[in-house]
From TrEMBL:
MF terms in GO: carbohydrate binding; mannosyl-oligosaccharide 1,3-1,6-alpha-mannosidase activity; metal ion binding
Source species: Petrolisthes manimaculis
Protein name: Alpha-mannosidase
Family: Belongs to the glycosyl hydrolase 38 family.
Location in or out of the cell: Golgi apparatus membrane
């Protein structure tokens, strides 16, 4: 949500809505219009051919001011637009005026492009003879007139702003700490805690809340379904029974994936009992996500998605809105999570896994409870109160106090005869009249010691562990014995203590009461409202639980599945948008039926929604902190993979079904067949352990096949697209029927042989935002090919024999020979790259600037110790050593559109591609690695890039694809501690350049020397690292990974400064667009049979500003619906008439050019009526991010003012 408060229209809403909506009055608008017309008259009276430089500046200044007025004044928008057009006409008389703003604003020549704030005319609308230069028949490069983003000057201010004042900055904490590990006694990682009994009194009692819980992993040692059948269903069954026996008993639950599965099997009587338990406050749903997600590898799209999935289920079934976060097991913590929870309406959160030295520091400073602040938030509107569990673990021995030997004696599931013992060999005792005093005082001593670490006299004591409370005896033993202790403590007033079972809501309410938090917002205020708690900014990576055991291995473990996660995210985002727009079109045309599902449109929507829900839940499940992390047992990983691959197939089915409907000529008479496959998408996963196969378009001479291309992004894309065909003799035409330039390349099956029946055909597509376009592929006789339009890749080799190629291709020897071979050079008009004779990158040139780059592959061994590297831990034996290439030669393919270099090494097939495209894909190097380390033992494989960039000890990584954080390399820490999660990017920079690795999959990364970056590609470990999974990582697969290397020279004239001391940094607009390009790619839909008469194009027509990203367009679900009658049926997930639109205004650095973009920025202004002019009702409502709370009502024609870095969700309605 944004930053300016709105009163909620919902009586129970506690969420603070913060978004500025500017609506100018009619009187003010008329006055401004008259004043502007007078000023325009004065400008027009100037002689057109006698401008001085000063006049030019005034004219450009006027244009800038008029553009700003247009963005802020709604009531006179048409008049302002006319004025602006006149000024543009004046500008045409002197083209120098456009250059006055400088290259950083990307101003383009006036007679080719239109600059109107949101919609910028793209390359396709340039007259045909201006698109490209003359192309010689020899296949030389196509030359484009490049576009750049048009950036409003005020939009550059945010990235230069000073970070908010913060009491605790994690970077400074790391600078301060010694990271030693002295023995603290009973509390090994702390110290001997002392207290004074007199600090408590009748007026100042110690208030203790014991919080029973059971942490249920949706997959780890067992699969999700196995855990449910063996354990979780019994926990929930007993929960209903045992809580109902005594209203003093409390319990919290987090994982909705398990809860929803159990709920489906319960009679209505049990469901009503659960609702009563929630209403009475005995049962609290905490966090409410589908899972407790990982916080290192998960992308913010997926985190938001899995939380929304859980919150939607709760709204439909329990009417519950979680208010407290609970993240006790993720292996390190991100501020992105704090932001998302706050913007969903939550007020407090609980965390656990923080580096033991950091946790000790916070404990000494009484700062285990803090207000987590986003470093980029100037108004501190995103603050959320956070409680940290102070000790080693969240289990019972480490939660009652500092001495686990004592605390374990109060885990009454370990009573003698239970089969579970305490490692300290002192068992619990049943509480009786004879021992209640001594046992209670022993426990109270631990409570009092733990209380010394906090700023209030309110104490939280979790009571649980993994899969606890399975047996009814545990419920009885824990609750009965603890209640006896509570009764004793509470009946002896001289102890000055009140103890009880509680929930997180009970605890935070008590903290709020003691801290004196009050005000106009009442209970909706967070604890931070009036409490003396410190503010903290930063993250908690990399986590270590003891010694030098840093959990940086899981950033990379099972990279095949990490990559598959991102593939599914792209397909799901694309399917959600196309499905929602299909329903919107149906509704606008009056096609959708009533609640009975009687129409063709409604039946199609219901059938496809079932596939969408399955995909949503599979992606959500995989975000679990033992899913995407790669830390589960082998058979569980296979189970996850099968679910993900099925979900990719489901999303592909939804995309092709929706595309077929949207492109149909007559949608009113459309006959749906929800099971029909009209198109196959360009890739197909057929097995859980193999990369996707490329689909081949079968061609026969004379056939004309319409291939549909889908752009899921809300920005226009000019992009090269490759389709695999069975013939090299083709003609490609765009939707207007115009023949296009294309390049045909061989498909290599192995280094020395290309396929005789498969060919990659590449051509340039021009796609409006969120659109479908049909490009036709015509199969020709060889003699009929127009060689001015079709080029065949020229193949050269080095250090190998000539490969076997189809006769249409030529092959030659790459220039050079012997040990002094010259570098291999690939170039386009935008980029040039040189490579060694082994095919490894040596330099990049862009924007007239060359950066030497040395790319090499390196390996790590494992520490020779009984505890060493495994699925979680990265414990290398020494610094990495280069891997001997052992290559089989280099294959180079050059052409006017694509040029590539391909090298097969012993562990990797390494391909680098340069695209000659006017879009963002033409501004960076594409790296595609196919990694195979299955023959190795205890082998960790990384790609390293070394440059002369003077980055020192500083580098930057992203957090969850949402924000950038500064990293410092510390010599006082071991190598593995300087590895960090790289969910999507890592970069280094100096005053002259920024060099970025943009990644299509989450991996671990580091900068271990100045000017250097490295990314871990795969890990093969032969042993367990003793963190619970009980095995090594030996199920490695042939694993693809994709990167873009982006070199960006910094603009000297407008050198940006990203915050004080570089604490904040932001990607450029080009980096944002490039990342979206690889995460949310263009999809090709290849027809499987006759599709009928279809339209050539379809689209929503609107475009978002450059710095506004369409995160999701998600149709919500209604409760299950039964259809009665002869064809009675149950629809488990009927689509709701409501759609959640989530937008993200990106923070970006203006210090770099933005070539390849044809959009503009406009101060974050968005009008939904321009984005969706023909779909959805006029009425719109702002919501909290996961749709839990309602905000302000508005119409589509309102001008939304989105703030940088903020996410917003709006409810759109179809009927």
């Amino acid at each position: 949500m944004g930053r300016v408060a709105f009163a909620s229209h919902h009586p129970s809403a506690t969420y603070i809505f913060r978004m500025r909506l500017r609506v100018s009055s009619m009187v003010f608008g008329v006055a401004v219009s008259l004043a502007t017309l007078v000023l325009l008259y004065q400008v027009l009276s100037l002689p057109p051919d006698t401008h001085t430089p000063g006049d030019e500046k005034e004219m450009v200044s006027l244009e800038s001011r008029l553009r700003r007025l247009e963005n802020n004044i709604q009531s006179n928008q048409h008049t302002i637009s006319e004025i602006k057009n006149l000024v543009h006409l004046l500008a045409k008389t002197n083209s120098k005026a456009n250059s006055m703003l400088g290259p950083q604003f990307g101003v383009v020549v006036g007679n080719k492009f239109m600059r109107n704030g949101i919609n910028t005319v793209g390359v396709a609308e340039i007259p045909r003879d201006h698109k490209t230069g003359q192309v010689a028949g020899d296949g030389s490069a196509v030359v484009y007139n490049l576009t750049s983003a048009t950036i409003m000057q005020d939009d550059c201010i945010f990235a230069q702003s000073t970070p908010p004042a913060t009491d605790i900055l994690m970077e400074k904490v790391y600078n301060q700490l010694k990271f030693d590990n002295p023995d603290g006694g009973a509390w090994k990682q702390g110290w001997e805690i002392q207290y004074d009994v007199s600090q408590w009194s009748p007026e100042k009692k110690l208030r203790v809340f014991v919080v029973p819980h059971s942490h249920n992993d949706p997959g780890w040692i067992k699969t999700f379904e196995q855990y449910y059948h063996d354990q979780t269903r019994h926990i929930l069954d007993h929960m209903v029974e045992k809580l109902s026996q005594d209203q003093r008993r409390k319990f919290i639950w987090a994982e909705i994936s398990f809860f929803s599965l159990w709920w489906e099997q319960q009679p209505e009587s049990v469901r009503n009992t659960v609702r009563n338990l929630v209403e009475r406050g005995q049962l609290e749903i905490v966090m409410g996500g589908w899972v407790m997600n990982d916080e290192a590898n998960s992308h913010y799209y997926a985190i938001l998605h899995q939380l929304t999935e859980g919150h939607e289920w709760l709204a439909l079934n329990l009417g519950v809105k979680p208010n407290n976060g609970w993240a006790i097991d993720p292996f390190g913590l991100t501020p992105t999570m704090a932001y998302l929870l706050k913007r969903m309406g939550m007020e407090n959160m609980v965390v656990q896994r923080i580096h033991y030295a950091v946790k000790k520091h916070l404990a000494r400073e009484h700062s285990l409870e803090f207000v987590w602040r986003q470093i980029w938030d100037p108004n501190s509107s995103t603050d959320i109160f956070c409680h940290t569990l102070p000790f080693y673990s969240y289990d019972i021995p480490h939660t009652c106090g500092p001495d686990p030997k004592v605390c374990c004696q109060f885990d009454f599931n370990r009573l003698p005869g239970s089969g579970i013992t305490c490692p300290w060999r002192v068992p619990p005792q049943r509480i009786t009249d004879s021992n209640v005093k001594a046992r209670s005082q022993m426990l109270l001593d631990q409570y009092r010691k733990k209380a010394q670490l906090f700023r209030t006299n309110v104490l939280m004591v979790p009571l649980g562990d993994d899969f606890r409370y399975v047996r009814p005896e545990e419920w009885d033993n824990q609750f009965t014995n603890y209640q006896a202790i509570f009764d004793y403590l509470n009946s002896n007033p001289e102890l000055h203590v009140e103890a009880q079972f509680g929930t997180l809501a009970d605890y935070f309410r008590a903290v709020q009461e003691e801290s004196g938090s009050s005000g106009a917002e009442g209970e909706a205020r967070g604890v931070e409202g009036g409490a003396p708690f410190p503010t903290l900014a930063g993250d908690f990576f990399t986590y270590a639980d003891r010694d030098d055991h840093y959990w940086s291995g899981y950033y990379t473990s099972r990279p095949f599945h990490k990559s598959l996660d991102r593939v599914l995210e792209g397909y799901l985002k694309g399917a959600e948008a196309l499905y929602s727009l299909m329903l919107g079109i149906q509704s606008a045309a009056g096609i959708a039926g009533g609640q009975g599902g009687s129409s063709e449109g409604e039946r199609l929507g219901e059938a496809l929604m079932g596939k969408l829900v399955d995909a949503r839940r599979s992606l959500a499940l995989f975000q679990h902190h033992d899913g995407i992390t790669g830390t589960a047992k082998d058979h569980v990983v296979v189970d996850y993979a099968n679910k993900l691959i099925k979900s990719v197939d489901n999303c592909q089915h939804v995309i092709q079904q929706a595309a077929h409907y949207l492109l149909s000529i007559n949608q009113r008479t459309y006959k749906s067949d929800p099971n029909a496959v009209y198109y196959e998408l360009g890739e197909k996963f057929t097995e859980h352990n193999k990369p996707a196969s490329r689909m081949v378009l079968g061609l026969q001479v004379g056939s004309v096949i319409p291939a549909v291309v889908y752009n899921p992004d809300a920005h226009r894309r000019h992009h090269l697209l490759t389709i695999r065909t069975s013939s090299p003799y083709v003609e490609i035409s765009n939707p207007k029927g115009e023949a296009l330039r294309c390049q045909v390349n061989p498909v290599f099956m192995k280094p020395g042989e290309a396929s005789p029946t498969m060919f990659d055909v590449t051509f340039l597509v021009d796609l409006p935002p969120v659109s479908l376009a049909t490009y036709t592929v015509k199969a020709l006789q060889p003699a009929s090919v127009n060689m001015k339009l079709v080029s065949y890749g020229k193949v050269t080799v080095r250090n190998m024999a000539a490969p076997t190629l189809p006769e249409v291709f030529t092959v030659g020897e790459e220039d050079g020979g012997g040990s002094g071979q010259p570098p291999i050079t690939l170039k386009t008009p935008q980029l040039q790259a040189t490579f060694s004779s082994a095919g490894l990158l040596q330099s990049i040139t862009t924007q007239d600037h060359t950066l030497p780059v040395s790319l090499q592959f390196v390996k790590y061994g494992v520490m020779n110790h009984h505890e060493t590297s495994g699925a979680y831990l990265f414990l290398p034996d020494k610094e990495a050593v280069p891997v001997t290439p052992g290559g089989s030669g280099v294959v180079v393919v050059r052409g006017p559109l694509l040029s590539s270099i391909r090298t097969q090494f012993s562990h990797i097939l390494h391909t680098v591609t340069l695209s000659n495209s006017p879009g963002v894909d033409g501004m960076s190097l594409d790296i595609h690695n196919l990694v195979d380390i299955r023959a190795e033992r205890n082998f960790e494989f990384a790609m390293r890039l070394s440059t002369n960039i003077k980055s020192g000890d500083i580098f930057y990584t992203d957090l969850n694809g949402f924000q950038i954080i500064k990293r410092m390399r510390y010599d006082k820490l071991p190598l593995q501690a300087n590895y960090y999660p790289m969910p999507s990017q890592l970069f280094i920079q100096d005053p002259d350049n920024r060099f970025s690795i943009l990644s299509a999959q989450p991996l671990g990364g580091a900068s271990l020397k100045s000017g250097q970056m490295e990314v871990m590609l795969d890990r093969r470990l032969n042993q367990d690292d003793h963190r619970g999974v009980g095995q090594g990582v030996l199920d490695n697969l042939l694993t693809p990974n994709v990167f873009r290397l982006l070199l960006e020279p910094r603009l000297k004239a407008k050198e940006s400064v990203s915050g004080e001391d570089g604490l904040m940094s932001y990607p450029s607009l080009l980096a944002h667009a490039t990342l979206h390009d690889i995460l949310y790619p263009i999809y090709s839909l290849l027809p499987t049979a006759k599709t009928g008469q279809m339209q050539n194009t379809w689209g929503v027509t609107g475009e978002l500003p450059c710095d506004v990203h369409l995160v999701n367009l998600r149709t919500m679900v209604d409760p299950p619906r039964a259809t009665l009658g002869p064809a009675s049926r149950l629809t488990p997930h009927p689509p709701s008439p409501n759609t959640a639109l989530t937008l993200h205004r990106l923070g970006f650095d203006c210090g770099f050019k933005s070539p390849g973009l044809s959009c503009s920025t406009n101060g974050g202004k968005v009008r939904l009526s321009e984005v969706f002019p023909q779909t959805f009702r006029e009425q719109v409502q702002q919501m909290s991010l996961s749709m839990m709370y309602e905000g302000v009502d508005m119409t589509k024609s309102y001008t939304l003012s989105l703030q940088p870095m903020e996410l917003y969700t709006f409810k759109l309605s179809r009927s």
